[in-house]
Amino acid sequence: MNLIFLMMSSGLTLNTPIEEIFHIGTGCSSSKLAAKGDYIFQAFHWSGYLHLDSQFPLFRKQKHINNYRLGRLASRMAEYDGKMVTADVTSGNMIFEPVLEDGVFRFDCSENDRIAAYPSLSFIDTKVRDTPIMNKKVPLYIPTFECAHGKQIVNIELPSGTSFYGTGEVSGQLERTGKRVFTWNTDAWGYGFGTTSLYQSHPWVLAVLPTGEAFGVLADTTRRCEIDLRKEFRIKFTAEGPYPVITFGPFASPTAVLISLSHAIGTVFMPPKWSLGYHQCRWGYDTEEKVLKIARGFREKGIPCDVIWMDIDYMDGYRCFTFDQVFSMLVSYFSLWSP
User: Fold this and answer.
1) Glycoside hydrolase family 31 N-terminal domain location, by residue (predicted)?
2) Which of 69, 81, 104, 226 has its Cβ near the most Cβ atoms within 10 Å?
3) CB of 231 within 8 A of CB of 153?
4) Where does 94-213 show beta strands of DSSP type E?
């Protein structure tokens, strides 16, 4: 029996507060300009901080005469903002266009939001989401939206008796009716029945209608998203806007919905045979001897085991892409990769 040894990794994100300068635009498409050092960036608010929206500055601040130009720009932006913004909150029915194939629709809060939305990281071909197809059909269920202070709230009302599934990698029951989930990845090593954020985020809901037909909804955003299924027969997404919502169906069955979804986001690869066997994994395998002892124990007791995972114990000071010297066996394996 051959055993495969796998290692986990860790990551770190730092957020730095910066100085806000302007607020421009309307509704979910509103954006900001911010100053950091000598440069002006496009930026957005998140968790009490103003974050740079790009690593590339829009232009550089300069003293003297350019300060005058910047002042004129601020004045013109304020004038533009005053003409365009009539309320802090906008709401209504989302606009739609057919995409991908029959029965699939993209919804946006406005034409401006459609243009302002980030490229899709869900679709295998990003152009498919942004390219309408020739189809005169209209969707059976049209979401409503509310945009307030940069947040986009989407509601979809479905028939009485609808049950909900999906919502990505979460703990708890397979049926998600009455649940509330946050797509906000965490290292949830100690998760319990009520933990709503695990290692992956998938803002997707599969609704099974009382007729037996099925309906799928994808909020195509990578930002922190609340999926609220607590109100009976209603799907509610809340996230920083703008972002499009893609609906699939209703189709004859959940299988038909998932087939259509796979045409958008792709299919699962065929897993290798060893990955389907038993995997032994835990924190605390901090020496090579411990790992080998566990492996020998499985063999001596005749218990099948295809993979033994090591958590971040194997790292040198918990730094990614490093190996502690106590794992000399691993170091010798991976030295073969060195140039």
Assistant:
1) 150-228
2) 104
3) no
4) 95-98, 104-108, 144-148, 151-157, 163-166, 180-183, 204-208
* pLDDT tens over the chain, length 339 residues: 455 555 554 443 334 344 444 444 445 665 555 555 555 555 544 434 444 444 444 444 444 334 434 444 444 444 434 334 344 679 999 999 999 999 999 999 999 999 999 999 999 999 999 999 998 899 999 999 999 888 999 999 999 999 999 999 888 899 999 999 999 888 888 888 888 888 889 999 999 999 999 999 999 999 999 999 999 899 999 999 899 999 999 999 999 999 999 999 999 889 999 999 999 998 888 888 898 899 999 999 999 999 999 888 889 999 998 888 888 877 676 654 444
The answer to whether residue 11 is domain-embedded is: no
How many folded domains does the chain comprise? 3
Residue 282 lies in a domain: yes
CATH of the domain at 260: 2.60.40.1760
**Domain membership flag for residue 5:** no
**CB-facing half-sphere around the CA of 11: CA atoms within 13 A:** 6
Query: Does 332 map to a domain?
Result: yes
My answer on whether 120 and 151 are in the same domain is: yes
